């Protein structure tokens, strides 16, 4: 069974936020809320600077504190691609999962449930790419099955250097940043 | 689930849901209106069109879900978007939902600029305008009505005005934007780089960006190709006083002192000539005046350039050799917004010459020869013969201006010379933000008998208008066909995707109705723009129906490189690439570019620089709720050490005061290592002062407001705007 | 400057730092902890046969306990964003979720307290529901049962007290909470606030004396536990050190040192030591200070915990 993940090439990403805008319109993310966002990390002293740009969102972790702390089972690991999802009809909005996520990837939707990136499962099920991936003008985002050694994402991870966010949090995130 | 949260989204942002589906304002006139209604049934409809959030004109596909505009994506068939829009394009649907939109025609009831209006019918508004125009024609002649417009939407308005007899038309895209670059390249190659630019970034092996901040400047195809070049391991060289996004991708970052680029360019050419690294065959075959040029250039050693530019001689040599190594697949990017210091044509010429040395003009990975789809024009009756000449460039004061000069028209409106200008038609250009020195613009406006502004939102310029006409946004209208010259010929269509929310009308309708009221109905012999489009397409053997289906129809691929057999022609006096320009010499200018040291900022002042943010277009997207949600104010970038010296912290609000005592709105500080200590930087387009722009009102500061000083380029009349200095006011 | 981090995210309650839990959760944790302590105390009185004394607080504690617990539960309810799905908590049991454990422990707490209550319900209630007398007499005929009720109260009370700490300490994402000491701390603090409260309402001089002494013990233990908690964090990774610093010298230090340590532990400890040693009379000042200290402790731990972060959270 598939285990979906994302690989993002920070060498190509320009931090344009198209991925953020696309997520907004695709998923009707309400004004003032973000399912994905851009972090820029600059190191150094002018003019010797290293800048890394990361398009961030829920990491769809293999070890999911957000799912294990959920008292209702609303947060769950979906059978398709092991994507981490929230069932809006079950969530009571206790916010435990928000406090439990080291990436601050979740928020409370104005309708009262915990919300976050779904890896656009509704698109993926139809054979499309997630909205953010499909819109990115620099083609720096890749999506696919990490368990399939022949997938584009697996090949990239096999051939390029990368890092994940907060490995020390022990969540085994499934978004990889190529450097 | 989706549709429920959709409604929520609408509610939260204050959109009126009913409006999008209910309006039948166009019913009686628009043939397509019935079709629009059909769209408002259940299900998802995909309608191709092309984007208008900037002037790149990317092919797009809009999605309408249950009659409500849902999202917009790139059209995969479009050579410009290649199936992916830039963030502004993706957020473009916000233009339709913008709660601050103009809804009905307005006629001013109090003093100009007081923004007090009366809502009127289209009939009344157009009658009012027609009467004033007739009066101006009677007293001063039709030449006394001038027009400013930006973008393809202005075409029908300009057509109407030409039929009326007007001759003065200008756009800020020349004298405030790409003018110097175009002229610099025309003087060198006899041709300019066009828009979209003919840069083959996709195939380049070495890309030099001088200021061009791709990645923040989101001109779509260029950014896509830029990423491609990065992936191909092309050498990127970035010259910028600010560590831009592009700089972060560069192998060599040159933190140049602002305004000294010509010195760097001359030194680069010196290295390439003295080390004989140029493309000898190419220069011999196509070049003119190379001997004089190389003599002149021999004085500009990297050691000479170092104290001017702050770029170490070593670095100048290494980068020059790197460019030469990759020739002819090397692009020294011509930039686009080139109006910086008033010596911009010469800087652009230096860029052109450096490219010429490397033989990149016409070569793969350099500058290709663009091709376009040719569509026969609509057979209109001839325009009346004007009795007066254009007045933007009197006596050819700026001898090489190849387009009309906005500031020239403004100047003439103030002085009334050589003849008075009494009416302005302003279409889709916010002159208050686009032209330097707001005071002069207002002074000119005060001399007018008629100021008509056609806009979609209550922009600052609309605030000064006598009549404001609310236009439909691009997603709600047809426009002229799109046939930009690029890598392959194509035709693109803009067509209505949704109904307008209120009584807004498209430009073609406004132009046609006004023409009829002016007794010029014969210039609009068609009833609906569909007839016009159909005529032009049929004449080229295409079908409107097919184009509406596909959005893009491509023509035959054609050769675009010298390598593919093109024999280049140069429309210069010598018929060659002019390393030495006799026409410049004859007009009293340097035949080979020379460097002039820029003025230093006074103590405690910093040079004001500005540019783009990826999620905004100029001053036109700050009330788009989606794009505003991405970035709702600009920040002033201040070098970290300078900020510390002033005791200013990131996130703190300050005000900027320029050399003439003008104080900005309050603006957030970004204290950063990413900029030189002698300048500050902010994103253009913020700091709106129109109260009717509720979301944008006084968010951030306006660079335009602080640009009271400008340096006119004597060669072509452009306004160099990077010549203002600001200091900080900590009290806000 | 060496590192500049900027983010474009701006989610309410998340940015610039997490503050999903407002006053409701600290109130809930505080009341939960205090009720837990009260159950343990009441249970102890039942177990140790003090209930034979009619002035025993074990007869007043249940009513007040139910009231406090209900207020706490109501605060928790108020905090839920999807209030009317509240019942979803009880359609499932999630073994990995402390929140789920807590929901079910609370379900157990009520009957246990009520059984305690039924040992000697007040007259007015008995008059209204005469049937209750049957249960009351049944219980009172079985002294072993009463002792077992005491044990159950102590066990369930401890579970409740520990749960209030575990709820936070399992949130690996918030460094300040990453300590097993938190469960002990909340249990001991629950006990000390409960002892203080019962001390205040007790009608028996003997109880007052006993509870003051016990409270002194709890306070000393609490101080010790806090020390271990902070030392534990400070000797862990950098993020945990930063988290501990929030309390020791950082943003929350003034409140922490003043209200939790100073007037919440040290001062009442001094007062009660004097009282126990008959230097001064027993008075409500010390218990009130202890209760306030316990309340503020919950607020500080909840707030500072949300503030503490793995990433350099304070972007702007
Ligand atoms: N200070 C400063 N000045 C500059 C620049 C700068 O960076 N700084 N940049 C320069 C450059 S490069 C350029 S190209 C120019 C750009 O100058 P402009 O093209 O004038 O750009 P905007 O200021 O965005 O004004 C566009 C106006 O068109 C309106 N509009 C948008 N869509 C429509 C539509 O569909 N129909 C109608 N009728 N109106 C519409 C918008 O509401 C807005 O009022 O500015 C130049 N001036
Ligand atoms: N997102 C977005 N993209 C856009 C637009 C938009 O509105 N929004 N507008 C489009 C249009 S019309 C235009 S014209 C282009 C403009 O975009 P470009 O032509 O790419 O850039 P400029 O506005 O000329 O220059 C801004 C950059 O030049 C640097 N700079 C300033 N002074 C100097 C100097 O003296 N020397 C050097 N070497 N660098 C300097 C600044 O630090 C900044 O990085 O963008 C286009 N793309
Ligand atoms: S759309 Fe692509 S390039 Fe732009 S910020 Fe997102 S990941 Fe980066
Ligand atoms: S990133 Fe956060 S929300 Fe997403 S799976 Fe990991 S812990 Fe859960
Ligand atoms: S907020 Fe919803 S999804 Fe998150 S833990 Fe509570 S019930 Fe589960
Ligand atoms: S995968 Fe979908 S939901 Fe997740 S960030 Fe991308 S667009 Fe948003
Ligand atoms: S570059 Fe962006 S804003 Fe401009 S036309 Fe293309 S998609 Fe639209
Ligand atoms: Mo421009």
Account of the 3D structure:
Chain A is α+β, with helices and mostly antiparallel strands and 179 residues long. Chain A is built from six helices and ten strands; from the N terminus they run βαββαββαββααβαββ. In chain A, the strands form four sheets. A four-stranded mixed beta sheet of chain A has the order 8-1-10-9. In chain A, strands 2-3 form a two-stranded antiparallel ribbon. In chain A, strands 4-5 form a two-stranded antiparallel ribbon. The longest helix of chain A is centred in the N-terminal third of the chain and has 10 residues. Chain A is globular, with a radius of gyration of 16 Å. Chain A starts with a strand and ends with a strand. A seven-stranded mixed beta sheet of chain B has the order 5-4-15-14-13-6-7, covered by helices on one side. Chain B has a six-stranded mixed beta sheet with strand order 20-22-21-26-19-23. In chain B, strands 10-9-8-12 form a four-stranded parallel beta sheet. In chain B, helix 11 crosses helix 15, helix 11 runs parallel beside helix 16 and helix 14 crosses helix 15. With 732 residues, chain B is an alpha/beta fold. Chain B has 27 helices and 26 strands. Chain B has four domains: 120 residues, N-terminal domain of TfIIb (Single Sheet), CATH 2.20.25.90; 157 residues, Rossmann fold; 204 residues, Dimethylsulfoxide Reductase, domain 2 (3-Layer(aba) Sandwich), CATH 3.40.228; 125 residues, Barwin-like endoglucanases, CATH 2.40.40.20. The longest helix of chain B has 19 residues. In chain B, a hairpin with an 8-residue loop joins strand 4 and strand 5. Chain C is mainly α and 316 residues long. Chain C has a single domain, classed as Formate dehydrogenase/DMSO reductase fold (Up-down Bundle). Chain C is built from eleven helices and one strand. Chain C starts with a strand and ends in a 9-residue tail after the last helix. The relative contact order of chain C is 0.14. Chains in contact: A-B, A-C, B-C. Chains A and C meet through strand 2, helix 3 and strand 6 of A and strand 1 and helix 3 of C. Strand 2 of chain A pairs antiparallel with strand 1 of chain C.
């Amino acid at each position: 069974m598939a285990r979906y993940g994302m690989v993002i090439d920070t060498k190509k990403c320009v931090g344009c936020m198209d991925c953020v805008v696309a997520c907004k319109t695709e998923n009707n993310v309400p004004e003032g809320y973000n399912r994905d966002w851009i972090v820029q990390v600059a190191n150094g002293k002018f003019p010797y600077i290293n800048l890394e740009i990361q398009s961030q969102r829920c990491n769809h972790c293999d070890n999911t504190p957000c799912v294990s702390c959920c008292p209702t089972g609303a947060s769950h690991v979906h059978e398709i691609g092991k994507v981490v999802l929230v069932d809006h009809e079950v969530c009571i909005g206790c916010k435990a999962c928000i406090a439990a996520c080291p990436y601050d990837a979740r928020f409370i939707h104005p309708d009262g449930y915990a919300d976050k990136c779904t890896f656009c499962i509704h698109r993926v099920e139809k054979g499309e790419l997630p909205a953010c991936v499909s819109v990115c003008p620099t083609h720096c985002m890749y999506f696919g099955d990490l368990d399939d050694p022949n997938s584009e994402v697996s090949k990239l991870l096999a051939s390029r250097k990368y890092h994940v966010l907060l490995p020390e949090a022990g969540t085994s995130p499934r978004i990889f940043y190529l450097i | 689930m989706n549709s429920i949260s959709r409604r929520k989204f609408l509610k939260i942002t204050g959109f009126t849901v009913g409006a999008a589906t209910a309006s039948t304002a166009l019913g009686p006139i628009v043939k397509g209106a019935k079709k629009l209604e059909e769209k408002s049934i259940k299900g998802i409809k995909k309608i191709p069109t092309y984007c208008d959030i900037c002037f790149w004109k990317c092919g797009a596909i809009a999605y309408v879900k249950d009659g409500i505009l849902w999202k917009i994506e790139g059209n995969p068939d479009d050579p410009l978007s290649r199936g992916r829009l830039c963030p502004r394009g993706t957020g473009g649907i916000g233009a339709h939902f913008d709660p601050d939109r103009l809804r009905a025609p307005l006629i001013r009831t109090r003093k100009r600029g007081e923004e007090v209006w009366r809502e009127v019918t289209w009939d009344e508004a157009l009658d009012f305008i027609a009467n004033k125009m007739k009066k101006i024609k009677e007293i001063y002649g039709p030449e006394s009505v001038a027009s400013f417009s930006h973008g393809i939407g202005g075409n029908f308005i300009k057509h109407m005005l030409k039929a009326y007899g007007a001759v003065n038309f200008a756009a800020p895209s020349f004298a405030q934007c790409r003018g110097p670059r175009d002229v610099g390249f025309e003087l060198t190659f006899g041709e300019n780089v066009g828009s979209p630019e003919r840069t083959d970034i996709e195939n380049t092996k070495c890309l030099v960006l001088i200021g061009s901040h791709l990645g923040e400047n989101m001109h779509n195809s260029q950014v896509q190709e830029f990423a491609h070049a990065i992936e191909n391991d092309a050498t990127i060289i970035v010259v910028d006083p600010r560590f831009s996004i592009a700089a972060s991708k560069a192998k060599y970052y040159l933190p140049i002192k602002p305004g000294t680029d010509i010195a760097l360019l001359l030194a680069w050419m010196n290295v390439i000539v003295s080390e004989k690294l140029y493309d000898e065959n190419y220069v011999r075959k196509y070049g003119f005046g190379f001997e004089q040029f190389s003599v002149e250039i021999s004085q500009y050693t990297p050691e000479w350039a170092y104290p001017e530019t702050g770029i170490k001689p070593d670095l100048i040599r290494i980068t020059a050799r790197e460019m030469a190594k990759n020739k002819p697949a090397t692009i020294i990017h011509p930039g686009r917004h080139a109006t910086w210091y008033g010596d911009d044509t010469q800087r652009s010429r230096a860029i052109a010459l450096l490219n010429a040395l490397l033989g990149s003009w016409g070569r793969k990975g350099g500058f290709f020869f663009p091709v376009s789809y040719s569509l026969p024009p609509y057979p209109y009756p001839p325009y009346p013969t004007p009795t007066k000449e254009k007045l933007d460039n009197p006596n050819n004061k700026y001898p090489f201006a190849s387009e009309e000069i906005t500031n020239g028209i403004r100047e003439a409106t103030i002085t009334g010379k050589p003849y008075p200008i009494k009416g302005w038609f302003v279409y889709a250009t916010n002159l208050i933000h686009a032209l330097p020195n707001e005071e002069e613009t207002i002074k000119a406006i005060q001399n007018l008998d008629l100021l008509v502004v056609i806009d979609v939102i209550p922009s600052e310029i609309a605030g000064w208008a006598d009549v404001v006409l609310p236009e439909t946004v691009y997603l709600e209208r047809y426009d002229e066909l799109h046939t930009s010259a690029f890598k392959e010929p194509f035709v693109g269509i803009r067509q209505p995707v949704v109904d307008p929310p209120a009584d807004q009308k498209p430009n073609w309708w406004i132009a046609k109705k006004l023409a009829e009221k002016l007794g010029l109905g014969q210039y609009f012999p068609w009833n609906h723009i569909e007839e016009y489009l159909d005529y032009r397409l049929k004449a080229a053997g295409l079908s409107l129906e097919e184009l509406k289906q596909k959005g893009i129809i491509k023509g035959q691929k054609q050769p675009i490189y010298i390598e593919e057999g093109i024999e280049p022609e140069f429309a210069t006096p010598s018929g060659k690439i002019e390393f030495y320009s006799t026409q410049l010499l004859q007009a009293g200018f340097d035949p080979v570019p020379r460097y002039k040291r820029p003025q230093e900022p006074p103590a405690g002042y910093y040079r004001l620089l500005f540019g783009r943010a990826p999620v905004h277009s100029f001053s036109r997207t700050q009330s788009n709720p989606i794009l505003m949600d991405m970035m709702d104010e600009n920040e002033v970038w201040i070098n970290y050490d300078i900020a510390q010296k002033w005791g200013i912290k990131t996130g703190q609000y300050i005000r900027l005061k320029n050399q003439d005592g003008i104080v900005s709105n309050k603006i957030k500080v970004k204290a950063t290592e990413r900029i030189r200590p002698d300048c500050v930087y902010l994103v253009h387009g913020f700091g709106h002062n129109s109260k009717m722009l509720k979301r944008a009102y006084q968010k951030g500061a306006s660079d335009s407001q602080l640009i009271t000083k400008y340096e006119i380029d004597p060669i072509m009349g452009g306004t160099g705007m990077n010549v203002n200095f600001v200091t900080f006011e900590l009290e806000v | 400057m060496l590192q500049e981090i900027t983010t474009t995210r701006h989610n309410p309650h998340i940015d610039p730092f997490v503050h999903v839990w407002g006053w409701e959760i600290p109130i809930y944790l505080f009341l939960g902890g205090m009720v837990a302590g009260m159950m343990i105390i009441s249970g102890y009185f039942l177990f140790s046969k003090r209930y034979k004394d009619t002035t025993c607080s074990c007869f007043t504690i249940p009513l007040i306990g139910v009231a406090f617990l209900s207020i706490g539960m109501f605060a928790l309810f108020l905090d839920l964003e999807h209030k009317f799905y509240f019942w979803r908590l009880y359609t499932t049991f999630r073994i990995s979720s402390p929140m789920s454990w807590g929901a079910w422990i609370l379900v157990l707490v009520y009957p246990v307290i009520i059984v305690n209550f039924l040992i000697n319900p007040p007259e007015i209630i008995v008059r209204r529901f005469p049937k209750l007398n049957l249960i009351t007499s049944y219980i009172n005929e079985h002294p072993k049962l009463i002792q077992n009720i005491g044990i159950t109260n102590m066990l369930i009370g401890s579970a409740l007290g520990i749960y209030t700490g575990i709820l936070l300490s399992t949130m690996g994402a918030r460094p300040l909470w990453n300590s097993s000491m938190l469960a002990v701390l909340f249990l001991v603090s629950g006990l000390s606030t409960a002892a203080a409260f019962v001390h205040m309402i007790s009608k028996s001089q003997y109880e007052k004396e006993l509870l003051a002494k016990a409270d002194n013990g709890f306070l000393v233990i609490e101080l010790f536990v806090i020390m271990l908690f902070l030392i534990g964090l400070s000797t862990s990774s950098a993020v945990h050190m930063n988290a501990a610093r929030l309390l020791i010298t950082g943003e929350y230090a003034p409140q922490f040192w003043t209200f939790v340590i100073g007037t919440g532990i040290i001062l009442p400890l001094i007062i009660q030591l004097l009282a126990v040693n008959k230097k001064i009379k027993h008075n409500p000042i010390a218990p009130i200070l202890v209760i306030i200290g316990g309340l503020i402790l919950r607020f500080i731990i909840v707030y500072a915990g949300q503030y503490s972060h793995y990433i350099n959270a304070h972007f702007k």
